[in-house]
Write a structure and sequence with these properties.
The chain contains three helices and three strands. It has about 90 residues and is α+β, with helices and mostly antiparallel strands. It has a domain of about 55 residues. A three-stranded antiparallel β-sheet has the order 1-2-3. A hairpin with a 6-residue loop joins strand 2 and strand 3. The chain starts with a helix and ends in a 12-residue tail after the last helix.
């Protein structure tokens, strides 16, 4: 397996945006969004805990998917990754 293939199996990219929307009981309230730079898909989170849950599940599912394929095999979503220029906004 070459280094580009190895990196593609261990690399996930998102644009993270965080903003404060006030405070509750003296603690700041934060909102978050992630944007996939390859597809333009955006995901919104009402709090950082939801963001952390999503990232934990994403990483767990990526690890699970990798373990079900033989070493060096391209995962189904990696074989067809390309930027379509499309934009899906789930906010």
């Amino acid at each position: 397996m070459d280094s580009a293939t190895a990196r593609s199996k261990t690399y996930v990219a998102y644009m993270l945006r965080l903003w404060q929307v006030g405070s509750r009981e003296g603690m700041p309230v934060w909102r978050a969004s992630l944007e996939n730079p390859h597809t333009g898909e955006r995901l919104a989170f009402g709090d950082v805990e939801g963001l952390f849950v999503f990232l934990s599940e994403l990483l767990a599912s990526e690890d699970e998917a990798r373990s079900s394929f033989p070493p060096g095999a391209a995962l189904p979503n990696e074989a067809s990754q390309h930027n379509t220029g499309g934009y899906r906004d789930s906010l």
